[in-house]
What we know:
This protein is an all-alpha fold and about 70 residues long.
Amino acid sequence: MHYNLACSCSLTEQFESAAVALNRALDLGYRDFKWLSKDPDLAKLRKHLLYKKSVPASKAMEIKIL
């Protein structure tokens, strides 16, 4: 739900709200970083400083499954 909210906020250029929602999604366990890096709904947010500050740090939590 928080990931989808982040997408909606990004599409409407509400970047602060998008970043908060995305960070909440990450806090709750969202870990599909491959999709997050190419989801067209988040394209505008990925260019924003708020994204660049929060997601790389969260990506360090990524768990690799063999």
